[in-house]
Amino acid sequence: MQTPRRALVTGAARGIGRAIADALVRDGCDVAVVDRAFHGESDAALERAAAPGRRTWRQVADVRSAGEVAQTVEAVAAQWGGIDILVNNAGIARDQVIWKMTDEQWHDVVETNLTGTFHCCRAVLPLMRKGGWGAIVNVSSINGLRGKFGQTNYAAAKAGIIGLTKSLAKEAARFNITVNAVAPGFIDTAITQAMPEEARREALQEVLLGRPGRVEDVAEAVAFLCSDRARFITGEVMRVDGGQYI
Ligand code: NAI
After folding, report:
1. Residue 191 Cα: closest atom of ligand 1
2. Which domain holds residue 100?
3. Burial 169-199 (b: 16+ CB within 10 A, else e)
4. Is residue 216 within 8 Å of 19, Cβ to Cβ?
5. Distance 112 CA to ligand 1 centre (A)
6. Measured between alpha carbons, how far is 226 from 148 in angstroms, rounded to an integer?
7. 27 contact partners, CB below 8 Å, separation of at least 6
8. What is the CATH number of the domain that holds 205?
9. Which candidate in 125, 154, 189, 242 is catalytic?
10. For 169-218, what is each residue's pLDDT tens digit?
11. Which of 136, 93, 132, 98 is CA-nearest to residue 117?
12. Is 246 part of any domain?
């Protein structure tokens, strides 16, 4: 049997990140679950993850902090000897039209979604280089491709992730590291449950397949991009949106 791949997933205490962690465990990976807050629902996820022979790791860290990210990556690598898979999923939205947007709303969203992704990629890259294999998947959004009313901060951060993904794909290919992004549409999670009812209805009307996405829909795409089946795919942005974008 192949040695399990060692994965680190950010924002994995709940929602899409938790589903990604579960899918990677199912696919035979050891998974480090990193989040700034464990919302009281993560124990079940970790219990599921702790299948016989699988190692899991749970770490509180804020991806906005370069220091906390570096410490987390060092700790996981010290325990497991390396990291092969990184999924940058941690993200927040703080919607507001730009003329009312506070500095805090702007910086929170850009620092979590975009700078957090940078911190994690930078910290993990040397380990992947050393291991001679790597897969990075960054969670963007269709709103990073098309923009959205009330989301200048979020769309800018998610578009930034796409630029980062393509640039890093170019830098990392020589080390056998692939770098891809997924761009989910309307997925049923805490983020979308917090939207006003009218906005939820409008978003849902755009989805060709006529339903909100499930966290598993995104997790399956991410798990594929992390697998050996996707080794000739890099610099790609895969929409997982039920046709919402087109
Ligand atoms: P969620 O709010 O359910 O989960 C996000 C997780 O990230 C939470 O556990 C939270 O504690 C964690 N997190 C937030 N800031 C963090 C930080 N600074 N450091 C570490 N962890 C942090 O959200 P959801 O919906 O599961 O979103 C996951 C990702 O998918 C996000 O990047 C989001 O922008 C993206 N996305 C979600 C869509 C949706 O419709 N739900 C659509 C497109 C993209």
Report:
1. 25
2. 6-240
3. beebeeeebbbbbbbbbbbbbebbeeeeeeb
4. yes
5. 9
6. 29
7. 223, 226, 227
8. 3.40.50.720
9. 154
10. 999 999 999 999 999 999 999 889 988 999 899 999 999 999 999 999 99
11. 136
12. no
Question: Distance between CA atoms of 172 and 86, rounded to whole angstroms?
Answer: 13
Phi, psi dihedrals of residue 187, rounded to the nearest 5°: -115, 140
pTM above 0.85, yes or no: yes
Q: Which amino acid is at 139?
A: V
Residue 51 falls within a domain, yes or no? yes
The helix/strand/coil state of 104 is: helix
Q: How many Cβ atoms sit within 10 Å of the Cβ of residue 8?
A: 31
Q: Is residue 138 part of a domain?
A: yes
* 197 is a domain residue: yes
**Contact between residue 169 and residue 178 where contact means Cβ atoms under 8 Å apart:** yes
Q: Which atom of ligand 1 is nearest to the CA of 91?
A: 32
Nearest CA owner, ligand 1 atom 10: 11
CB of residue 144 inside a 6 A radius of ligand 1: no
pLDDT digits (tens, 9 = 90+) for 86-125: 999 999 999 999 999 999 999 999 999 999 999 999 999 9
Overall domain count for the chain: 1
